[in-house]
Design goal:
The complex is a heterotrimer of chains A (about 240), B (about 290) and C (about 280). Helices cover about 40% and strands about 20% of the residues of chain A. Chain A has nine helices and 13 strands. Chain C has a single domain, classed as MetI-like fold, CATH 1.10.3720.10. Helix content of chain C is about 65%, strand content about 5%. Chain C is built from nine helices and three strands. Chains B and C meet through helix 3, helix 4, helix 5, helix 7 and helix 9 of B and helix 3, helix 4, helix 7, helix 8 and helix 9 of C.
Chain lengths: ~240, ~290, ~280
């Protein structure tokens, strides 16, 4: 796996020599299995593999870069990268500012992770990452929200009792629950918020967006996207 | 990296620890210490230069220069540095691209600020879209350095302004009496004398600068705090080296790094201050004269 | 919603009074000014209480640092070194991560259960860190001032038969305050600036109640435009700085009231001891 990634990185650099325009993909790098920085210091995860495949199909040279979640849209606007591919749910609020491709992950449910299956969500604070749809959801539904800057801290808050549960994408929480040796469990209650995960572009970048959109369509049609979703998010994941 | 580390999941004990600590990401982490040191090494002289200009402007005879210098100095006292960091970098970045836009974009190119979007023509991007990741990182780093230098330059201007005022008036008047011009008094008397008064303040400033480096991550630079958070966070099996939440350990490491830096700096600055005080008409200089006699 | 209604709804939002949900549309200037201003309550809370409590600890530390006995001197020296030698940002982080390790159910001592969950809340935990931090910085200022008290003053006191506690309370301590006050003013200003780090680093905001920077960040995030909320918070801080300078200036005048006019120490624009 590591070698393979090194190879893709080299392809990225090779493209520079051709003086072709590079499309810069911006991600967060802290949201496994969507995207994370692996132990070799490279961007890794579902979106890495998916993004590289899209670039190949669209015949574009791509380069990865990471940015803190809470300034990921302003930095797209000011041109520090050209695409956001960071597990970002398509919402009306964001749609006003940026343009999304079609969704590449179906509307996923958000789940609660807690210390026990009968945790009472109203008995304490519910953790969520700052400026996510989940944080807004918790606040709007009468629960007390406690916000952290990174997804990592939200889970830590549940473990040390600061929050009764964390609300986040189920695909992010599932491996954490599975590997916690029963310390953490997913609640039966799930929420469906947001409209699927898409790539975000500046309003003015229609040409590039259409290329990516076409590539996503082709990946959906030949089933590679579904295979990738199953590979990263497990056999029960929703597919197209 | 090493042959023994090819399959991290199967090794354990010391080998695991060794492989873990030499993983690519850890090497990046060790490099980031150099990034911080480099930032310090570049920012300190840059801030000193800006501070010198600020202080000179604040003492100037010309009203516009004086207002400019004083406003610059007052800025640091009023606005917390974090807030400055939060929006100044984006403003600086857009400002640079706007200037380049004026220079290189074909005439008739649209105004760059379209609503919330900032858009210049392809040739005006800094760095160019086709540049390699290295240049993007270098540009980000340069923006951080400039921002730090501007903020800390204002602090330095503050200190140097005070130091210039502290140089005994009699010395300046004597120089004038010898027929030196204003520029000569400034260059030959004021500036050499000022340093001894400025040193305590400037040493403090150096300490503050060291302690401000954790804010680098606000400027989008992947610094030691970024990596400590990233490496310390608990890792699931998607990673080669899964582990529990170790952030506390990493941050204690950072704490030790900063305390060591402080201790080292205290030693060096103490010696420097002793050197500069020699033969000066200050209490410290007097004490040294007596001790020597 | 008129601006007056907005102020009614959000003026005290940062402490949980008023409208439950933060604004989701419009994001008018009035909303931004009101909410960011409301967040300033927290900045004031942290700054004022940490300064008040820190002042006393700083005095004690300055005295023990200038003591002859190493048993009194060494702990004070180490305390000051650790808190002045490391970034506040990391102190916050370490404090938070250590406090959350305390057992949630409380600690039992002699049959009494001490609750621990409140310690991880910003109002307690962050305040405690700021208190220790400002105490260390101020201790260094007062220690320096204590050492620069003119020898003649002390000799004169002794010549009048003022010794021991009397000498300290009537000569040394007031002189120390007078000499250290300009630098202490700077420390106060920068402590207020440092309060913006509380919710920005480790302490989480509960129920969307945070400080001025928390709300500025909220608006920057919702409007995707950092050029409005951050200058607003800068504006508030400039006002706060002017207020602190004014209050400390009045105290300075009082401290200097017995000193001949031409020898009074004026608060100058100097960065003395800051983080």
């Amino acid at each position: 796996m590591k070698k393979l990634l090194l190879a893709t990185a080299l392809v990225g650099f090779g493209g520079v020599a051709l003086a072709q325009d590079v499309v810069r993909l911006g991600t967060e790098g802290a949201y496994p299995p969507y995207n994370f920085i692996n132990d070799a210091g490279e961007v890794d995860g579902f979106e890495r593999k998916f993004g590289d495949e899209l670039c190949k199909r669209a015949a574009l040279t791509c380069e990865w870069t990471t940015n803190e979640w809470d300034s990921i849209i302003p930095n797209l606007q000011s041109g520090n990268y050209d695409v956001i591919i960071a597990g970002m749910s398509i919402t009306d609020e964001r749609e006003e500012i940026v343009d999304f491709t079609q969704a590449y992950i179906p509307p996923a449910s958000s789940a609660y992770l807690a210390l026990s299956a009968d945790a009472d969500l109203m008995s304490g604070a519910v953790a969520a990452q700052t400026s996510t749809i989940q944080a807004a959801f918790v606040a709007e539904n009468g629960m007390q929200v406690v916000e952290y800057a990174t997804p990592e801290e939200t889970v830590a808050a549940v473990k040390n009792g600061e929050a009764v549960a964390v609300l986040a994408d189920k695909d992010y929480l599932k491996p954490i629950a599975a590997e916690s040796n029963g310390e953490l469990v997913l609640l039966a209650k799930e929420e469906s918020i947001g409209g699927g995960v898409g790539m975000a572009f500046r309003d003015s970048d229609d040409a590039v967006r259409e290329k990516f959109d076409a590539a996503i369509t082709s990946m959906k049609e030949d089933g590679t996207l579904n295979a990738m979703i199953l590979e990263y998010f497990g056999p029960e994941a929703k597919t197209w | 990296m090493f042959a023994a580390c090819a399959d991290p999941k199967s090794i354990e004990g010391l080998t695991w620890a060794f492989c873990y600590l030499t993983s690519g990401k850890h090497l990046d982490f060790y490099w980031s210490f150099l990034t911080v040191l480099m930032l310090l090494a570049i920012t300190a002289p840059a801030a000193l230069a800006l501070g010198f200009m600020g202080a000179t402007a604040a003492r100037s005879q010309a009203l516009p220069a004086r207002i400019l210098g004083k406003t610059y100095i007052a800025m640091v006292r009023g606005i917390p540095d974090i807030i400055f960091f939060l929006f100044f970098v984006i403003a600086l970045d857009q400002g640079i691209e706007y200037l380049k836009h004026l220079a290189v974009c074909p005439s008739g190119a649209p105004w760059p600020w379209q609503g919330l979007e900032f858009r210049v023509c392809k040739e005006a991007k800094v760095p160019l879209g086709s540049s390699s990741a290295f240049w993007h990182n270098a540009y980000g780093f340069a923006l951080a350095v400039v921002t730090f230098a501007i903020v800390f330059g204002a602090f330095a201007a503050n200190v140097m302004f005070g130091a210039m005022q502290a140089v005994p008036k009699a010395q300046l008047e004597t120089a004038e009496a010898y027929g030196m011009s204003n520029a000569q008094v400034f260059r030959r008397i004021l500036v050499p004398q000022m340093w001894v008064y400025a040193l305590p303040g400037l040493s403090n400033l150096w300490m503050i600068l060291i302690k401000a480096t954790p804010l680098l991550f606000l400027l989008g630079v992947e610094d030691i705090v970024y990596y400590a958070r990233e490496l310390g966070g608990s890792k699931t099996n998607s990673y080669a080296y899964p582990h529990r939440d170790w952030r506390l350990i990493y941050f204690i490491g950072l704490m030790i790094f900063y305390l060591t830096m402080t201790k080292l700096s205290e030693g060096v600055l103490g010696r420097l201050s002793a050197r500069l005080s020699q033969g000066q008409a200050t209490a410290a200089g007097e004490a040294m004269r007596r001790a020597g006699a | 919603m008129t601006c007056f209604e907005t102020i009614q709804a959000y003026g005290l939002r940062s402490i949980g009074i008023g409208e439950k949900l933060l604004p989701k549309t419009d994001f008018t200037l009035c909303q931004q000014f009101t909410l960011i201003g409301s967040g300033m309550i927290w900045n004031l809370y942290f700054g004022v209480l940490a300064l008040l409590a820190g002042f006393f600890l700083a005095n004690a530390l300055a005295l023990s640092k200038s003591a002859h006995s190493p048993w009194a001197r060494k702990p004070a020296e180490w305390f000051v070194f650790v808190f002045r030698g490391s970034p506040l940002f990391i102190q916050f982080f370490l404090a938070y991560e250590t406090l959350v390790l305390l057992p949630r159910s409380g600690i039992e001592i002699f049959g009494i259960t001490l609750a621990t969950s409140w310690t991880t809340k910003a109002w307690a935990g962050a305040l405690f860190v700021m208190f220790l931090n400002t105490a260390a910085y101020s201790a260094e200022i007062f220690y320096g001032a204590l050492r620069s008290i003119p020898k003649g003053d002390l000799e004169a006191a002794e010549a009048f038969g003022i010794t021991g506690w009397q000498k300290f309370a009537r000569i040394q301590w007031p002189t120390m305050l007078r000499l250290g006050w300009p630098a202490y003013t700077n420390e106060a200003i920068f402590l207020f600036h440092a309060t913006t780090l509380v919710f920005f680093s480790s302490f989480p905001a509960f129920g969307q109640m945070g400080d001025a920077l928390y709300y500025a960040n909220y608006f920057a995030d919702k409007t995707f435009n950092p050029f409005v909320p951050y200058p607003i918070i800068a504006f508030y801080f400039i006002l706060l700085t002017l207020l602190v300078t004014f209050v400390f200036g009045r105290i300075n005048r009082r401290l200097n009231r017995y000193v001949p006019q031409n020898q009074r120490s004026r608060i100058r624009l100097r960065v003395a001891l800051i983080r």
